[in-house]
Amino acid sequence: MFPSSSAQPDLPVPTPIRSDVPGTWAYDTVASRLPNTARRTLIENDFPPEIVAAVTALVHAVPQEPIRSLQQEAPDAAAWAVYTVPHLGQNWLAPPWFFAETYFYRRLLEATGYFGPGPGHHLDPFVYQKQQGLLTTLDTTKQIAHLLSESIARGWQEQDCANLLAIDLWGNRADLSLWPADETGDHPQAMDWNTAAGHTLADDTAVAVRHLSERRPARLDFLIDNAGVELVADLALADYLLAAGAARTVVFHLKPHPTFVSDAMSSDVSATVTFLAGQRDAATAEFGQRLQDYLTAGRLQLLADSFWVSPLAFWEAPPALRAILGRSDLIISKGDANYRRLLGDRQWPYTTPFTAIMTYTPAPLLALRALKSELAAGITGDQIERLNVEDPTWLVNGRWGVIQFAVPGAQT
Predict the structure, then answer these.
(1) Which of 25, 44, 118, 153 has a C-alpha 20 to 30 A away from that of 219?
(2) 8 A C-beta contact, residue 5 and residue 363
(3) In terms of pTM, does the model score above 0.85?
(4) Under the phi-then-psi rule, with left for phi > 0, alpha for psi from -120 to 50, and beta for the rest, what region is 331?
């Protein structure tokens, strides 16, 4: 285990990314994608008239109406009362982008009555998309299950671990908030980890696998991102590490309530395990049964903390959560939103070494991220110059990824 380092980066922290510049990904997200997300919830749910009216009002509020305090009692209401104070009265484009997005999803839950006593109580407004995310990628899930079965039969092999890390990275290409599961068109929902391999811009796979090999059996903490096929890939990596003896315990850190459309909660893990175990394909059903056994035995644990649905940077995590993560032999951070949180969603120069920012992490950390926002670290100047010409939307189209490893307190 590693001691906790200081709870902020050693480097001077740049200003937050904001969404007030037309033409940027952040601007388009707040001005267009967020209202469209609210509209989709109206199509995909049979809401009563009062919820339809509340969601419709939210659609019209974004992006120009003033930001206000939340109005419903909820477990995180006191925290949100603090988060919103600096931005009250501003339009939605003025605050830091990460605040605007997380605030929107929290307002959407308020509109649907998620925390209230009425018909929307604890109903996930994104459940249709999550279900479709599993059903439309079943062939990929079966491929993963068969590869997993073969890997487990061989026992611990560094190459098998590396393969499953790559699969887990490219599972992050699927993102239901950007590319709904039932829409056709040019989006990377269907994962192909073989052809995607050449799109890894920074690849610390070898050092991460070596780290795991030296610490078997390890405690691993996953910062989970999306439900659907990405969660299947997370579960596959966890299954392999547990079955091959590389891990004694795996902890999944999940969202306590729905957010960002496809972000996974404990209930999504349970639903996915049940889905896998119920398949006719033997390898897939066995995959699901192993996971159920791990859950029953406490080797796979599910934790939810309100920090993961807050607008805070990772270095602002509460001491209790830092202490939990500080007991880990390896934190595996999944996805774009978690990566944004790791970097504080700040305007770091893209060439800033990832390790130079992540000196504050409470334990060794491995980030698996497909790029879906105008934020990056550890990318070379030559790569940036080439991609700006060859693929001008490389920062946001989900077709490029990173596998980056950092140790607390390490200097570059």
Answers:
(1) 153
(2) no
(3) yes
(4) beta
Helix (H) or strand (E) holding 341: helix 335-342
Q: How many CA atoms lie within 13 A of 333 on its CB side?
A: 26
For residue range 349-363, what is the model confidence (pLDDT) as tens digits?
999 999 999 999 999
Half-sphere exposure for 282 (CA within 13 Å, toward CB) = 2
d(CA 23, CA 64): 17
Distance between CA atoms of residues 301 and 288, nearest Å: 15
**Contacts with 223 (C-beta within 8 Å, 6 or more apart), sequence order:** 253, 308, 331, 332, 333, 334, 338
Q: Quick one: pLDDT at residue 172?
A: 83
What token pair was written down for 22? 């037309």
Q: What are phi and psi of 78, to 5 degrees?
A: -65, -40
Residue with tokens 């952040």: 26
Tell me the pLDDT tens digit for each residue of 84-126: 999 999 999 999 999 999 999 999 999 999 999 989 999 999 9
